Each structure stands twice: as C-alpha cells, then as structure tokens.
Amino acid sequence: MHIVRFADCPPSPWKNGGGITRQLLIRPAAANLDDFALRVSVADVDSDGPFSRFDGIDRTLTLLEGGGLQLQRDGVPLATLQADSPLLHFAGEWPISSQRLVGKVRDFNIMTRRSRCHHRAERLSLDGSLTLAHDGPLLLFLAQGDAVTVKNDDAGDTLRQFDLLWLEHAGTLQLHSDSACQLLLAHVVFGDTGIDDDA
C-alpha cells in the first residue's frame, strides 16, 4: 500500500504553459510524459485554451474545485464540468479546448497508454465503513472530505483531501470516514508483461 501526499507533490508547468500540474503517480516509476503507461495528476487551470495533446492515451477527467470548466472538441461543446459532474472519459489525441466559467479551477486526471494499460474509473461515496475487494491494481483518491482511514492486511494509514492511495496487487481494503466524503476509484489493468517500477 503506497500513499502519495498531495502536499509533497511539487507543481510543474503544463506542456503548453496553460496551467500547472502536480504529478501524484507515474508508472513505470522512471517514465516521463513521452513513455508512461499510467499517470495520475492534479492540475490548476490558469487560463482558457487548448489542452495538451497526448496521442495514444485514454484520459479520465473530473473537476475538484472552482466554478466550472466548459470543454469543446473541434469547437463543438463536449461537456461542462462541475465538482459533482459525471467523470469525463476521452482520448488524449482529441483536440480539446477549455473555458473556465468563474476563475481558476482544479481538476483530477488519470491517463493510461492504451497499448500498455487501461483503467476504469468511478465515484465512490463514503460515510461510515466499507470493505472494498479488488482483483488487481487500484487507485483511490480523496476528492472531497477531511479524512478516510484505510487498512489492508499489511498496513493502515489515513488519506487527507487530495491524497492518493495506490495498491499494486489484488486484495481487500477497509475504508472508514466519520463524515461524508467523495472518493475517486480506478481499477487499472496492465499488459501481460506488467510494469517494472524500478525500470
């Protein structure tokens, strides 16, 4: 069980300069923007304009904070994201442009290279306790709420807002929150060769 603290992730500029990104996770661990199989990040969108293009990448995007983000594909309206909107799934090669409705926004982004990996993401509401069984690698991100305790057979810890939990193997996870919160959950499947995190 590996927990990434949002506060420990330094910001870096977007490929196209339109905002900043905090990378929470990348696999393989030594990968960069050109050769990753999996990448998870939180971005602050500072200006309106085109998204960076990622050929061969499948993306899931959701809004965490801000007054809304309107997205267009080839100039045609695609979606208007709010913090409670459905997750948006799209191809990284699509020509996407964005317009903030009210000031700066912050979003959460999962990217997988479709030739090597794929993911299935969903929202998870929690208020109390939940046992979560998973049959492979799992991402768990605390999008809204103060704290969630997490335990598996090996360890236990606490997620704070915008922290990420990464589990590389199948197992059972115990979750608990004393108040209502929203988590983003993603099951990840790598190709037959797997991912060498030390590569």
Automatic annotation (TrEMBL):
<dbReference type="Pfam" id="PF05962">
    <property type="entry name" value="HutD"/>
</dbReference>
<dbReference type="InterPro" id="IPR014710">
    <property type="entry name" value="RmlC-like_jellyroll"/>
</dbReference>
<protein>
    <submittedName>
        <fullName>HutD family protein</fullName>
    </submittedName>
</protein>
<dbReference type="InterPro" id="IPR011051">
    <property type="entry name" value="RmlC_Cupin_sf"/>
</dbReference>
<dbReference type="InterPro" id="IPR010282">
    <property type="entry name" value="Uncharacterised_HutD/Ves"/>
</dbReference>
